[in-house]
Amino acid sequence: MDLTGKTALITGASRGIGAAAARAFVNAGANVALVARSADAITDLAEELGPQAIAIPCDVSQFSQVDAAVTACVKAFGQLDILIGNAGVIEPIAPLSDADPDAWGKLIDINLKGVFYGMRAAMPVMRQHGGTIITVSSGAAHNALEGWSAYCASKAGAAMLTESAHLEGADQGLRVLGLSPGTVATDMQHQIKASGINPVSQLDWSEHIPADWPAKALLWMCSSAADAHLGQEISLRDPDIRKKVGLT
Ligand code: NAP
């Protein structure tokens, strides 16, 4: 996969899947804009990755910040070809009847509105020359889990944003897809395990895949090899997809 001359903006790039994706995209030759709230973490990662990477501190729950991040990315690299809407949170994990309404709404601001804000800011720029928009989804978009009402609702909504953006963007040269990564060994799974709520928290750590795997899948999804899946979510639990991505 050669992305030389292409520019990707990755939200949630300070750790976990987003940081692994940033490394994979830079290794494939792309310029990468690292977006997250943790300015120190993305600055350190950008320094590690070299001149192909820049850090843009940004809270995706604020449209003005997302819009400014897209503008800063285009100013630095001249264009935007790939948007990875990956930033996400799992808390509040709580029974629906006990959940704090403000915390519940804050998750929606990040996981659902944040995905919309990314698309809203990037699509006018990207449709000038085409590009790829990938949203990092979850099995929770389609299956309810106890204690995860905010997370499941946000991911279900984000899956509908993927379909909507495909419907509106396909004839403007935009490739829009979603990735459901399965369970991945990141900080988010530590939070899930600590909660002790629902079967995902009971999984043995060895059952989680490394963050490099979804990173590799995201790279593959930027190629025409994934065109059969445009407008859809693909799952890394699917053995056929793993084979296509080159994972054993
Ligand atoms: P993680 O290690 O906790 O990383 C989450 C990332 O999102 C961090 O970089 C965090 O950066 C960023 N983020 C959170 N809130 C943000 C905000 N308001 N503005 C900007 N960035 C924000 O989790 P992960 O496992 O890599 O998760 C990445 C994505 O994969 C999420 O969408 C998650 O729902 C999805 N996913 C994960 C799993 C799994 O098993 N791990 C399974 C299915 C789907 P800052 O805190 O620095 O802002």
TrEMBL record:
Domain of life: Bacteria
Signal peptide per UniProt: none
Parts forming coiled coils: none
Annotated keywords: Oxidoreductase
Record InterPro entries: NAD(P)-bd_dom_sf, Sc_DH/Rdtase_CS, SDR_fam
GO molecular function: oxidoreductase activity, acting on the CH-OH group of donors, NAD or NADP as acceptor
Database matches in Pfam families: adh_short
Family the entry assigns: Belongs to the short-chain dehydrogenases/reductases (SDR) family.
PANTHER family: CLAVALDEHYDE DEHYDROGENASE, SHORT-CHAIN DEHYDROGENASES/REDUCTASES FAMILY MEMBER
Protein name: SDR family oxidoreductase
Species for this entry: Roseovarius gahaiensis
